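I have been asked to look over a protein record a colleague put together. The record follows directly below this note.
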Amino acid sequence: MKNPKGLSSYTLCADDFALSTPISETIAQLAVKGCINAISCMATMPSWPGDARLLCGIGGDGGAQKPRAVEVGLHLVLAGEQPLTRLSWQRPDGRLPGADETMMLAYGGQLDLDQLSREIEAQFVAFITARGHAPDFVDAHQHVHVFPGIREIVIAAARRHAPGAWMRNPADGVGAMLKRPFRGKAFGSTLHARGLGKALKRAGIAANDSFAGHYDYRGDESDFAALLPRFFHAAGRRHLIMCHPGAGHLEEDGIARARIVEAAVIGQMPLTERLAELRATS
């Protein structure tokens, strides 16, 4: 999806498909309406095998050479939820530590990389089993895939299981971040992702070259309606915007209200119309 000068392509990606069935249903509906053009799926979640059926007819069969209207990718779950395999750093309730604690473990070299590799393998297999083909792209819940030790395993697994997939890089340029809201969060993501772009290039894996979507998830509709157009600013040639639309109130989901608001705002028009409107007013 290119702008009139052919300089940028835009991907508006809904994360957390399969976190709950109401979230999955909302995301699938937005995809059918053309309001988003990428979906990132949590293959660890109990609802994944059933929710994956909502994606029938969305995306492609993995063999098409032409670009897909909606790409469907793997949202690796390596923090905050229960994994598919047993990991020695799981909490007593079975869940993994949150992203911040996982970050500290990764930077401290305290993760068992063999265990982590088996878990990532299991998540690729779970995705492929339900979808019948490899993911179009790979990323991770809360961008945990960028942390040291983890990133190398994810890159290797992607090359094995999804050699044609691209990978999310949550980094961006300083000038671009300064033109968008919540630059502090964007700078943090960029710092953690330092060197990822070069590592992906060495591995022959494509990636976005600009990234947006950071905000505070307050769940105020007027706030998000004002923020969303700004996420499209300062786009690189391959611009990626994360979003988290959904429905319902999942227990311990701190952004449940924000998901409902995002779904309402993003669902107001197809992405092609949104881009045309943004170009007309820029």
Notes: Residues 1-6, 61-66 have pLDDT under 50 and may be disordered. The two ends are 18 Å apart (CA to CA). The chain is about 40% helix and 10% strand.
